[in-house]
């Protein structure tokens, strides 16, 4: 089972305007919840991987002895050029100390977006602790505060911008009404 969240422009949301929103899928749903399933379906028409270049890279990696790691699924990706978010299918393949993860092209600008590790601030009274979507090797994170504020940071704590295409606002929030569960 997967889940989904909606990230919205805070200014447009407060003013009941449409504004920019990002509907993001998280997890694998029933289609790809384990690495064995991914190995069986990666080259079929209903595969979550639609990019022929990535399918070719997977095939080459499998021939060279790489194997899929656990927990493939959809995660948010951040495009620094467009200042936007999208959900893409993330997986890793490993062979000893080497790993492969897909590099997608942004649908808007053709730059390469970065995958995000999603981190929620806990509301359980434990200062400094977080609940997170734990993905090794990812250098960007989306921080969701107790107040539903959303920030994007690099692994060097450099804040990255999201941008509302309607009002040019750079502050975004988690829309709790936009949460979904999906198969």
Q: What can you tell me about this protein's structure?
A:
- The protein is mainly β and 183 residues long.
- It has one domain (2-182).
- Helices cover 13% and strands 39% of the residues.
- The longest helix has 12 residues, at 52-63.
- The N and C termini lie close together (5 Å).
What is the radius of gyration computed over CA atoms, rounded to a whole number of angstroms? 17 Å
Q: What is the mean predicted local confidence, pLDDT?
A: 82
Judged by helices, strands and strand pairing, the structural class is mainly beta
Sum up the overall morphology in one term. Answer: elongated
Regions with pLDDT < 50 over 5+ consecutive residues? none
> What number of structural domains do the residues give?
1
Largest sheet: 10 strands, mixed
Q: Compute the separation of the termini in Å.
A: 5 Å
**How many separate helices?**
3
Strand percentage lies at 35-45%
User: What letter string, H or E per element, gives the SSE order?
Assistant: EHEHHEEEEEEEEEEE
Number of beta strands:
13
Helix content: 10-25%
Key features of this structure:
183 residues, mainly beta, ten-stranded mixed sheet, 3 helices, elongated
Q: Quick summary of this structure?
A:
The protein has 183 residues and is mainly beta. 13% of the residues lie in helices and 39% in strands. The strands form two sheets. Strands 1, 2, 4, 5, 8, 9, 10, 11, 12 and 13 form a ten-stranded mixed sheet that branches.
């Amino acid at each position: 089972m997967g889940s989904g969240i909606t990230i919205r422009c805070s200014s447009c949301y407060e003013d009941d305007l449409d504004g920019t929103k990002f509907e993001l899928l998280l997890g694998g749903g029933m289609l790809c919840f384990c690495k064995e399933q991914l190995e069986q379906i990666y080259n079929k028409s209903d595969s979550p991987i639609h990019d022929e270049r990535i399918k070719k890279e997977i095939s080459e990696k499998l021939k060279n002895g790489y194997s899929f790691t656990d927990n493939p699924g959809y995660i948010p990706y951040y495009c620094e050029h467009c200042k936007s978010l999208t959900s893409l299918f993330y997986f890793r393949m490993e062979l000893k100390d080497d790993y492969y993860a897909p590099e997608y092209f942004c649908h808007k600008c053709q730059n390469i977006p970065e995958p995000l590790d999603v981190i929620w601030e806990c509301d359980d009274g434990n200062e400094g602790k977080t609940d997170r979507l734990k993905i090794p090797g990812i250098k960007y994170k989306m921080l969701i505060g107790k107040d539903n504020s959303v920030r994007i940071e690099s692994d060097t704590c450099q804040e990255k911008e999201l941008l509302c295409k309607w009002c040019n606002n750079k502050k975004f929030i988690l829309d709790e009404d936009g949460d979904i569960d999906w198969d």
